[in-house]
């Protein structure tokens, strides 16, 4: 088939790669000059199956009340005159029910484990380099109640096949000696040895290069105006690159536009529960003798992650629900640095931190939308939330299987119309 993929982030690029490897003729359209230049650009850098517990869980409501009014809150909800935000928020509350949380964890773990296997195979096959580290991910806790609750979540994830083990403070310091100065803050941790870290932007650009060699066509710096439909099918996609609008046609179409997916789909009557969750990051260049972590870390209290990317430390996290606003909030930027200094007071850096924010495409359940829409030739691969890097390879491979008429591998609630 001739397939048109909308979006060249990590999800769109992996989709294009696997579709091409399945024998299809693939074209990718994106408004950026290079692949992975928006939400995939400076994220937390974790391949984190251990992050399978969604934001929507029975324990989040007391935390939301605690965070109200705090500009530096890990989850900041800014009320807007936006029906989509309200509808998303109500569905989020429903997904906090215990039974739904358990179901959502099972789905996320299944896709994330499969995706991690796909990534490893792809890395070995193509010799990809993206500052990857295979040293696991260590979650650290500074509140004992949160630690006990997390231990319960870890037990559930082990039932689903993930090696997330609860560890004491001494073991945390053995795994990451750079935490020694913060020992007085810690109460315990969880360690997932099989998790990884790496630069999603470097990965996406490298894979896009291999995809081009394999025959994938990238239409860069091309704006997608709208999807055209006729007779219950997609008839084409109207685009422009500073010239007259052009209609691109194909046999099948894939929407992998992240947070912008609902804006493109709504005019043709396809409504998806995806809303932008703005995440922040700071990238610090490390001095040669810096007392910096080398194991990827997750700070549960502040909802931050710390990933070593070569001579850089990426500090990222939090979620701000403020529509499609991409302004950098200085209070939230400073909160990243303050927590970093609190955990690693001897950290030595060079130059100024590089701040960034991106819009994660969040579903209320954190379960992405992968599969066929109600248009027979329109497919979705979006809504990965905080786990786009983690689930990109798996959702791309599964989508290629489905579009080629094969059954996908993971036990996952794929879309069916």
UniProtKB/TrEMBL annotation:
Catalytic activity line of the entry: a D-alpha-amino acid + A + H2O = a 2-oxocarboxylate + AH2 + NH4(+)
FAD dependent oxidoreductase domain ranges (all copies): 2-402
InterPro entries: DadA, FAD-dep_OxRdtase, FAD/NAD-bd_sf
Enzyme type, top EC level: oxidoreductase
Cofactor: FAD
EC number: 1.4.99.-
Residues annotated as binding FAD: 3-17
The entry's keywords: FAD, Flavoprotein, Oxidoreductase
A Pfam family assignment: DAO
Gene3D superfamilies, per database record: D-Amino Acid Oxidase, subunit A, domain 2 (3.30.9.10), FAD/NAD(P)-binding domain (3.50.50.60)
Task of the protein: Oxidative deamination of D-amino acids.
Family membership noted in the UniProt record: Belongs to the DadA oxidoreductase family.
Name listed for the protein in its UniProt record: D-amino acid dehydrogenase
